[in-house]
Amino acid sequence: VILLCVSGMGAETARYSVPEEAERGSFVANIAKDLGLTGEELLARQARVVPEGEKQYLQLNQHTGDLVVREQMDREELCGQSEPCLVRFEVLLESPLQSFRAEVRLTDINDHAPVFLNKEIVLKIPESAMPETRFLLESAYDPDVGNNSLQHYSISSNEYFRVYTQWRNDGRRYAELVLDRALDREQQAEIAFSITALDGGTPPRSGTALIRVEVLDINDNIPVFTRSLYKVSVMENSSQDTLVVVVSASDLDSGTNGEIVYSIVQNSEENFETFKINSETGQIRLKKPLDYEEKKTYEIDVQATDGGGLSTHSKVEVQVKDVNDNAPEVIITSLISTLSEAAPPSTVVALFNVRDRDSGDNGRTTCELTGEQPFRITLLAADAYALVTSETLDREQVEEYNVTVQARDQGSPALSASKTLLVRLLDENDNAPTFTQAIYTMVMSENEPAGRSLGRLSATDPDAGENARVRYALVPPPTGTPAAASFVSVDAESGIVRSLRPLDYEKVPAFEVTVRAADGGSPPLTAQAVLRVTVRDENDNAPVLLHPAPDSGAAGELVPRWAPSGYLVAKVVAVDADAGQNAWLSYELAKATEPALFRVGLHSGEVRTARAVTEKDAARQRLIVLVRDRGQPPRSATATLAVALVDDFSDAFRQLDHDPASGQQPQVAEEEMLTTYLIASLCCVSSLFLLSVLVLTVNALCKARVRAELPPPSPSCFADGDFANDAVSVGGTGTLSPAYRYEMCLTSGSGRSEFQFLRPVL
């Protein structure tokens, strides 16, 4: 970009011309043709005209490339009589940024006629004036230049005078009146004729004035200046009434003819407005301050006239000296007010010119930046600069810069000026979102309804706008892993985590999911965090009995009557599927036949005797053990134990045969039957009773017949080997878990009262 700018700025200046006061819309030139571009390229590159001054006189048609007049231009107003009169401007193109210098020369048209400041010119000429004597006349003023300016003078026909047109050093023309023959006041005291100033335009314009010559009596000595040319220098910052020079003239005559009066011959309106002269002393002073930048040299015609009307002339040349009274001007020709933070170093931000109207060292300038900022200034051409980036930019550190360009001249004292440019940085998506935590831990209650808020995720992005807008989502788990993402959801905008369904702590005590935060950039940048959800256990499970089994009714246990205090009767074993305090179990004796005889371990569940067993204690004891957890509210279960106090094993079998627990089973079952079954049972009572009586009668008859057929009883003893095939194993599911074998002798007629094998308790 810089090379393109340098090539554009360093190229030859394009020059065009247009007549002054051309109508609006007048064609000047085709810029597109001169630049080698088409109208579409001009439009695409946003070509525009940047004037050197503040006023825009020209405009560019981006579609055709035509440069046309925007406002009428008066050459005399813009440049005075300076020639050439140039209107400078630059043509700026973008993408890439290029600048082309051009200038339009305003050609003068003959729009002004010569004008005499005084419509009547009075000359006092003594009658003794010799033929060929020359008299300086007041000059006419024509603001046009070149051929359109004043070219020559002519006078109307008369007998005494002719006129000559003369040239000044600055190119202006003035008139001298030449006497053709001697004057005679007695014959003609006054001579009048007209003078015409004619310019060279087509058609020519003219201005006239009346010359009235008064013939004076003889005054044979004319004033004489000490110098024919006075050269002086005046500083441009001189104030009003500053003395410029003192001219002096003398006259050999005496009396009124020797009295000299000084005056300035008005050869231009500019001199009349700038200088004044003391008619008695010859002091020339300033009417107003001078400006070197407007005009550098003045020529003043001074006339000394004595009392007799004789006059002479002298010239004063005033050179204006430059003073450093103009500060430099910083003129911005192009500015990129918004710049991407991703712009590389040496990116052009602005193009500007520095202009100082002073001359010499006072007009030489340097340019620099104030403060520490990531920019620098590059010189493109004389007084043309580019503001470029010097390093990479970061909007997250500084969003905008106020870049101050300071221009300073080399005058003494030096003057300076500054211009502040506001450069805003456009955001690029160069920062990924950042979670405030790497791991988020949240807690949800077991069986909590869906839709409850568990917490909130938070991620920040230092970018701006859409690049800083963070959206949240769950990362899908890998294939084959548990779908923990189906348990919770994350609100994309707010990051609020909500449950999707109730969870069972016993199945899912905790789970983890990965959460992604993505910004709105293109392409989006992402960050991830771990969401760890812990399920808080609720007391939703009652204790479960392992021993005794809950479906086996009352468990039978045997306790010898000689059991001391602390004798282990049984152990109740239970578990709770909950966790923590909800799974802490305690055991207590809820109900017992003799509560003082037994105690239960609070935490162990062991049922032991609280004291030694005595003969007074009932042979059959029924215990109900309550198992309770510590949840809120607590849940519980009960275990029923049937305890038999026995002296020996045969007694244990008899008591077990008459264990009320065995007879209570139907009763308990009947109590738990539904009402419908009770109604059905009432209908069958009669039939069941009759059937039972019939069965008992048949059974009794069969047994009487068998006894009648048996041989007489004889004692008999069976040895150990006789039970090899017919032995019956006596065992139980209670505390008598191993099998026992008993040896005994029975008579052949022993009956039911002698020995019985009972069914197990369980």
Overall residue-averaged pLDDT value: 82
Strand content: 35-45%
Count of spatially separate domains: 6
Inertia-based shape: rod-shaped
CATH fold-level assignment of the largest domain: Immunoglobulin-like
Q: What low-confidence regions span 5 or more consecutive residues with pLDDT below 50?
A: 1-10, 659-671, 713-762
How would you sum up the major sheet? 4 strands, mixed
In total, the number of strands is 53
- Sheet with the most strands: spatial strand order: 1-7-6-3
CATH hierarchy, class of the largest domain? Mainly Beta
Helicity range: 10-25%
Number of helices: 8
Kindly report the name of the CATH homologous superfamily of the largest domain: Cadherins
For the termini, the CA-CA separation is 102 Å
Radius of gyration, in angstroms, nearest whole number: 66 Å
CATH architecture type of the largest domain? Sandwich
Q: What structural class do you assign from the helix and strand content?
A: mainly beta
Oligomer status: single chain
